[in-house]
Specification:
By secondary structure, this protein is of the alpha+beta class. It has one domain: Thrombin, subunit H. 17% of the residues lie in helices and 31% in strands. Strands 11-12-13-18-15-14 form a 6-stranded antiparallel barrel. It has a 6-stranded antiparallel barrel with strand order 2-5-6-10-9-7. Strands 3-4-8 form a 3-stranded antiparallel beta sheet, with no helix packed on it.
Length: 310
């Protein structure tokens, strides 16, 4: 009888979610909150965007016709690289990075563990700053190489999740790119407003806000004890993020501190009705649907030692 009641309860929860999503407005967690860096109203985050980089395969960067101080890259629009419908936002912008990272020291970048998995991955990738919508070519001074992996973890088990990497660049970043401030102790509260900066689907740098850290979603509710334990490693939010945002810094909007590293999310695109192209997936702006996972930076081993914090 107990087993039967459990099955009935699970089916009821799934039915509740299906009904809620079916009646939700056709939007991305409410609205598409992605914004261009230069248009964002909060100067704090415009400045911090200078310290956010995109990971690019070296073979995509070529000598430039503009001279030795510049680098060319393939000009592939989102409508082509991801088959996104031409009427969608940013469909005509060039896509390039496949992950995001951010400075935590003048020559150290933090990102998701699945973005830099081994030394070969490090050796064959570059990190670029200031990749914006108007970028037609890169300044070589904004292109950095990965020298070594300082520390990395990538694992997932029933009660545990780890997904982060810290890499060393080939030189220190310029003084205009200040290392971002990280939370080093404690735990951020559910309901705290959060902001993300990164390269969604490889697009030029974007900021997204109007989101909060959310309580358990529907899948977590099915296994609450497991979810409570795993939540020590991550938090969920309803940020508008896509593949390419992996490794993005997720900020506490109130303090400006980095609370987490964006590591997982819901499905990005779905077929457009009656068309042969894709549109962003839509989800209800509720905690039941929120699925953007961020690994807590407080869970990184020896972080204070790496940062040389007393």
């Amino acid at each position: 009888m107990k087993k039967l009641n459990l099955v009935v309860g699970i089916l009821s929860l799934l039915t509740l979610v299906s009904t809620a999503q079916a009646s939700a407005p056709k939007v991305i967690y409410g609205v598409d909150n992605r914004q261009e860096i230069g248009e964002y109203p909060d100067a704090r985050f415009r400045e911090m965007a200078l310290s956010v980089a995109g990971k690019v395969r070296k073979f995509k960067l070529q000598s430039s016709r503009f001279g030795e101080n510049f680098v060319d890259f393939p000009h592939t629009m989102l409508s082509y690289s991801q088959n996104v419908c031409s009427k969608e936002r940013y469909a005509d912008q060039y896509t390039l990075p496949h992950c995001t990272g951010f400075l935590i020291a003048p020559d150290l970048i933090m990102t998701a563990g699945h973005c830099v998995t081994n030394q070969m991955d490090c050796d064959t990738s570059s990190w670029i700053f200031d990749y914006l919508p108007q970028t037609e070519y890169l300044e070589k001074k904004n292109v950095y190489n990965c020298v070594r992996i300082v520390q990395q973890e990538l694992s997932s088990s029933f009660f545990k999740m780890r997904d982060y990497a810290i890499i060393q660049l080939d030189r220190k970043a310029g003084p205009e790119r200040r290392p971002l401030k990280l939370r080093l102790e404690g735990k951020v509260r559910v309901g705290t407003p959060v902001v993300v900066i990164g390269h969604p689907t490889g697009l030029p740098l974007k900021i997204a806000d109007n989101a909060k850290i959310r309580s358990f979603n529907i899948m977590e509710m099915l296994l609450p004890i497991r979810s409570m334990v795993r939540r020590n490693s991550y938090f969920n939010s309803d940020l508008d993020t896509f593949a390419g945002n992996s490794g993005s810094p997720v900020f506490n909007q109130e303090t400006g501190e980095v609370e987490g590293i964006l590591v997982q999310g819901a499905k990005d695109y779905v077929p457009a009705p009656g068309e042969q192209c894709l549109i962003p997936a839509r989800r209800a702006p509720t905690h039941w649907a929120a699925s953007e996972k961020s690994f807590r930076v407080t869970q990184i081993k020896n972080l204070k030692k790496i940062l040389k914090v007393p």
